[in-house]
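Audit log entry. Action: structure prediction of a protein-small molecule complex. Ligand: flavin-adenine dinucleotide. The ligand was supplied as SMILES and no pocket hint was given, so placement is left entirely to the predictor. Protonation state taken as written. Sequence taken verbatim from the request; no trimming, no tag removal. Recorded inputs:
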Amino acid sequence: MSTPSYDVIVIGAGPAGLTTATEVARSGLKTLCLERLAPGGVLINLTELHDFEEPWPGPDMAARLTDEAAVAGVEMGFGDVNRISGGEPWTIETAEGESHTARLLVVATGLNKGKLGLANEDEFEGRGISHCAACDGPLYAGLPVVVAGAQGWGAVEARELSGVAGDVTLIDTTAVEAPPGVSQLVGRIVGLEGANGLEAITVESEGQRKSIPTSAVFVYVNQSPAAEFLPDSLARDGAGHIVVDAEGRTSVPTVYAVGDVRAGTRPYLTDAVADGERTAKAIVAALKKN
Ligand SMILES: Cc1cc2nc3c(=O)[nH]c(=O)nc-3n(C[C@H](O)[C@H](O)[C@H](O)COP(=O)(O)OP(=O)(O)OC[C@H]3O[C@@H](n4cnc5c(N)ncnc54)[C@H](O)[C@@H]3O)c2cc1C
């Protein structure tokens, strides 16, 4: 059997993947980190990090984590991983037609964009459907917008939009305390309408349907784990998150998972980083033992 090109390949360069890759590379293991968009994951779209000890713009934190990985000797690669196969060594393949081999894999692919689950939703993607207040909010200055999903980071995104767009309405099936300057509607979006980009939505609320003029919907509901390319042999929970043990190991011993893609984590930067540090220690111990 030929020698694999890397000791460890980390799939996904968000905060969890970058931290894991950095810590593993610091121990002298040859490490590749593959990313399909840009290093930093969700952070690159966040104006300012909340729930953090000091105010940090997301892109600055992304740059810091990426620099640390480079200094530690992590090889950064571009690639949309769409298949893994083999096992000790593993082969990973990308949509761009490249393949790489490694003794051990780390899945750090985070969550997919939110989905309303409506038939014509994809038609409005980028034409009224958005997932990023910092990137797209300014396009809707003075125009009415809606945020779908008050749980998770939806309410924080609504607060950010309230200083940028026109009227902001937060829609969720459960009542929450809406941020200042944001209206709240308890209900569910059941329709999207518009001939030239989004113009209105239909909302079901208290058993009634009503049309609401809206230029954009920022969607933060139903964010599924980005784990579609992984084989069924990796155990998932009911929502599709990858199940891991206390050391981050999945049901396949040489595949680990960190950050938002795994089961039982809190979707916060600090948790993603702590997860990466803890899992890297376990990986180093496992590989240096053999
Ligand atoms: C709108 C919003 C606001 C937030 N605000 C805050 C905040 O203020 N403070 C805070 O602490 N947390 C915040 N969070 C949560 C925090 O950003 C996440 O918990 C954290 O980014 C998770 O890190 P991760 O590395 O697991 O995943 P991600 O950051 O999602 O990174 C995953 C990476 O994997 C890549 N990837 C996915 N699939 C593949 C593939 N097949 N091949 C190659 N690459 C792939 C993705 O492109 C992405 O770069 C926010 C989240 C959202 C959605």
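Audit: result stored. The domain at 6-112+224-289 is CATH 3.50.50.60 (FAD/NAD(P)-binding domain). Residues 151 and 290 are 44 Å apart (CA to CA).
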